[in-house]
Amino acid sequence: MATLLQIHPENPQPRLITKAAEVLRDGGLIAYPTDSCYALGCALENKEGIERITRIRQLNSKHHFTLMCHDFAQLGQFVIVDNSDFRAIKSMTPGPYTFIMKATKEVPRRMMHPKKHSVGARIPQNTTALALVEAMGEPILSSTLLLPGDENPLTEAEDVMDQIGHDVDVVIESGTPGVVPTSVIDFTGKYPEVARVGAGDVSRFLDE
């Protein structure tokens, strides 16, 4: 059964953040809150972690995994941000948006889209999630905790423990996360395209 870590949502205890980061580094899989519901997360090079996420969510090969980044500088190390898209993406971070962009060579091939060589990336507006990414020193490979057959993602630590407590190593309880998934903007084409309307305002892209 997963370990439940209760972390203060505004002042995360460094000891507990370090403990969660160590689980990730040791090959573990965690469920953690963001500003747009819970996410599953593992270390970038964790092949087994990707397989566990894929199994829990029953994902297909076309799924875009997300790099949960600490800041814009880190995001820029793992995805290619064109000059024409820079200002728009910068204005939406941190926040409830996931950006689909071409991946750099820093991204493990197994987490890229098989044909587009693209990946999702985001910077959350959640203190605990940001502290965890900072402690890792690299992005956390993540996917929204939306279980097969469910219309809505999980938002309560108790529900996460009940439903997937035997499938993950740590569940973090840290305040109440958002209840709506991120808005997804695809920047891999000639023009930005809204792939999913979620918590973030996408009107600027729909008007174009």
Automatic annotation (TrEMBL):
Residues 14-200 form the YrdC-like domain. Coiled coil: none annotated. InterPro entries: DHBP_synth_RibB-like_a/b_dom, Sua5-like_dom, SUA5_domain. SUPFAM superfamilies: YrdC/RibB. This is L-threonylcarbamoyladenylate synthase.
